[in-house]
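Hi support team,

I'm filing this because I wasn't sure whether my run with histidyl-adenosine monophosphate finished correctly. The job status page said complete, but I'd like someone to confirm that the output block is well-formed before I use it downstream. Pasting the exact inputs I used:
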Amino acid sequence: MADQSFQKPTGTQDIHGRYQDYFWKIEKVSRAVSKQYNFEEIQTPLFENEELFIRSVGEATDIIQKEMYSFETKGGDKLVLRPEGTASVVRSYIENDFYKKPQPVKFYYIGPFFRYERPQRGRYRQFHQFGLEILGVKSAALDAQLIQALRSIFKELKLEVIFSINSLGDENCRPEYKKKLKKFLNKNKEDLCEDCQRRLKENPLRVLDCKEEECRKTIENAPQIVDHLCKACNKDFKEVLELLDELGLSYELDPFLVRGLDYYTNTVFEIFTEKEKLALGGGGRYDGLVEMLGGRETPACGGAVGIERVIEAMKKAKIKPEKEDKRVFLAQLGDSAKKRAFRLFEEFREAEIPVYETMGRDSLKSQMARADKVGAEFTLILGRQECIKNEIIIREMKTGKQETVSLDKVVEEIKERL
Ligand code: HAM
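And here is everything the job wrote out:
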């Protein structure tokens, strides 16, 4: 016997059972809604070149400084497990010349991401995101459509959420604002945490993202970027908000929302639960990123939602994913019946009627107990006698009423009753 037992790595989960039902529900809704808004699926590798994320997410961010799973391959390549999806989609857009396709190109993705974070509730080292990216056209209509598509997903999941919105300006107005912010923060340097004193040197905007109580207090009085937007950025932001108003989408303006990644320009947003303010997702415009990664000038925007967070929010709000709609159980007794039951199961499957079974069990009692447990509405009982007569018993579980029908007609019969 092996003397060692293994445990899953810290911050990871085995996804199964009820949790998997939630997962599947969110995935199903996200895919369906994305398709309605004309997004196409993209799957990129789980690992990429380290430099791709350093350049896009930004050196001063927590993701790059503390959270990357980096490794060197036997061939000497420096790779990382992807901490987010946007950089990979942009890499793919450039590498595959997607600018030749009709613009904008709209992608959605679902999959695991990896960040070496301190695990706590709602924060994992392997987590899953559902994301949307729109590349190739600059228009406030696309920012609004992106936010609307995400809202539609939450609406379908029946989850009440709040969108926080801000604009980060662009390369014309942001440098000036950064200078003002730096000046203000330098004046209040003693009130900032150690990390922020470092961030202040590297990128003062990162200080606005700090969650420490002492820093939050200082930030309250800091200059706000919305007061320093250039004319074009101001107009763009107004247009996005007007479109959201038109769609009846409520949002809160948060003048200090900067996001934890450096690639954003103009409109940025985060999605929170109403009560606990749990961050479910976020995103924004990133007009400079394609060029920064070696592509041609390409406007873009996107957003991503953390699936584990959405599950937590659904559980808190007592929203349950529906169970798989199976209402029939097939029980068999004896060798010949078991063989025939195998064929019958296929007949039901081909008729698209899902059926529970426990073919590995022989005792009728244990099969009936199972039928009860899974909450089957009808149990079909096939014994030796029935097999010989080409018949089968239909038992209505609620009333215990039983009747015998022809084996050749049972699929039709059940179809009518469901
Ligand atoms: P992000 O804000 O870093 O953005 O992540 C998006 C969401 O992923 C978060 O709001 C959260 O729900 C979830 N998430 C992040 N880290 C963890 C974790 N350790 N455990 C559980 N959930 C987590 C991005 O990743 C951007 N790529 C979003 C984007 C797409 N921007 C433009 N396009």
